[in-house]
């Protein structure tokens, strides 16, 4: 560990914040409305609480095994074969969901920005950018996220705060509703937007003080979740739940409806799209990097650069499999929430078994990242 630069708390927090604010920003208000109607902010709040529990569980494991990452402490706790089975399923899940995200990025860009550019070219360009960046070491990875964080947080916050002046608060009433299965599944789907937080399991072993992992994780989740909540409140408040259901990407429409006082700049959706591309790059990079590091450790390789390159064509082919955007969202609505249950259940199992077998807490520490 001493051979490599350590990641500061600020850098670790930046990685989580910029990772969690990704492509889900665009359809988020529609997903929240489908789950809770006028109570969309409540559904989002519950999703943030679920995401906080998710981050807490993995942070506890990281604090218990401060020199190990997901793959290595899984082997320590459950053995090579059983933990390997879980890792294979988790990796496969991330490969599919990351390819879905690449496709969604291509669809949005093709619709609003590069209308004459073939979808395949758009996806391939982003894949190339992510794959080349993923060849860097984990410290360079943290510097990239730290650099981009202000360009993600402040412009989005600025647009949201401006749009709050146009909110019709009656659109957000009643605030509460009787939860049903649709409400809970919708909240789980929103919580799945935080799935890339799993990259944190590779950040904790490189932190200057891994014992602060839970605090940093919860603060970062609160920042990202708070921004999501403000976006839902602003979107539903401006358009109303029934209108939101008719919009494919409500957040972009919110940018179009927002005007800076003095009217010297109208239609902030162009500005928002620029910020969105940056945030999507960071989120895709984290998902891609997680797959690369997991495969590297599971296969026992010393370097991850070859995997970062070989993974590119495979993800490209997967991203092109859905016939259209409707089929893409149908696949996503089934896979993403279900996978989150696995990502939450696995660390809980590991924690219980580690406690019973008295593993961790400084007993077994192996450098792995």
Can you summarize this structure?
By secondary structure, the chain is mainly α. It has helices at 9-20, 28-36, 40-64, 70-78, 80-112, 119-133, 138-163, 181-191, 200-203, 213-239, 241-244, 250-257, 269-299, 305-319, 325-357.
Helical residues, percent: over 70%
CATH topology: Hydantoin permease
**Main sheet attributes: strand count, strand direction, barrel closure:** none
- Judging by the overall fold, what is the CATH architecture? Orthogonal Bundle
Percent of residues in beta strands? Answer: under 5%
The total number of structural domains is 1
N-to-C CA distance: 8 Å
For the CA atoms, what is the radius of gyration?
20 Å
CATH superfamily: Hydantoin permease
Low-pLDDT stretches: 363-369
Find the structural class using helix and strand composition.
mainly alpha
The number of helical segments is: 15
Order of helices and strands: HHHHHHHHHHHHHHH
CATH class: Mainly Alpha
Overall mean confidence score, pLDDT: 85
Number of strands: 0
Oligomer: single chain
Shape: globular
Family: Belongs to the amino acid-polyamine-organocation (APC) superfamily. Spore germination protein (SGP) (TC 2.A.3.9) family.
Main location: membrane
Transmembrane segments: 12-33, 39-61, 81-102, 117-134, 146-164, 184-204, 216-239, 273-295, 307-329, 335-356
Subcellular location: Membrane
């Amino acid at each position: 560990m001493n051979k490599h630069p350590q990641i500061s708390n600020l850098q670790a927090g930046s990685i989580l914040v910029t990772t969690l604010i990704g492509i889900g920003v665009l359809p988020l208000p529609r997903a929240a409305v489908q789950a809770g109607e006028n109570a969309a902010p409540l559904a989002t709040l519950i999703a943030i609480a679920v995401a906080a529990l998710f981050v807490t569980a993995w942070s506890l494991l990281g604090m218990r095994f401060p020199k190990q990452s997901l793959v290595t402490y899984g082997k320590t706790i459950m053995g090579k074969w059983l933990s390997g089975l879980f890792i294979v399923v988790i990796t496969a899940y991330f490969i599919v969901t990351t390819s879905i995200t690449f496709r969604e990025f291509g669809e949005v860009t093709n619709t609003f920005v590069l209308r004459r550019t073939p979808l395949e070219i758009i996806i391939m360009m982003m894949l190339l950018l992510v794959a080349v960046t993923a060849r860097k070491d984990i410290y360079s990875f943290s510097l990239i996220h730290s650099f981009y964080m202000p360009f993600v947080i402040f412009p989005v916050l600025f647009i949201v705060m401006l749009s709050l002046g146009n909110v019709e608060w009656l659109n957000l009433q009643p605030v509460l509703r009787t939860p049903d299965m649709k409400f809970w599944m919708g909240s789980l789907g929103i919580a799945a937007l935080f799935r890339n937080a799993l990259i944190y399991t590779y950040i904790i072993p490189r932190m200057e003080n891994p014992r602060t992992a839970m605090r940093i994780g919860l603060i970062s989740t609160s920042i990202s979740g708070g921004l999501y909540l403000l976006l839902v409140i602003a979107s539903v408040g401006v358009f109303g739940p029934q209108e939101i259901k008719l919009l494919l990407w409500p957040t972009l429409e919110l940018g179009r409806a927002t005007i800076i006082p003095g009217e010297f700049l109208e239609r902030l959706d162009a500005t928002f799209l620029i910020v969105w591309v940056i945030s999507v790059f960071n989120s895709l990079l984290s998902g891609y990097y997680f797959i690369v590091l997991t495969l590297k450790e599971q296969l026992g390789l010393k370097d991850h650069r070859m995997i970062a390159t070989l993974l590119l064509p495979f993800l490209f082919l997967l991203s092109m499999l859905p016939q259209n955007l409707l089929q893409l969202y149908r696949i996503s609505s089934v896979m993403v929430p279900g996978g989150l249950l696995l990502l939450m259940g696995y660390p809980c199992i590991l924690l219980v078994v580690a406690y019973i077998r008295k593993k961790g807490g400084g007993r077994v520490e192996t450098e792995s990242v």
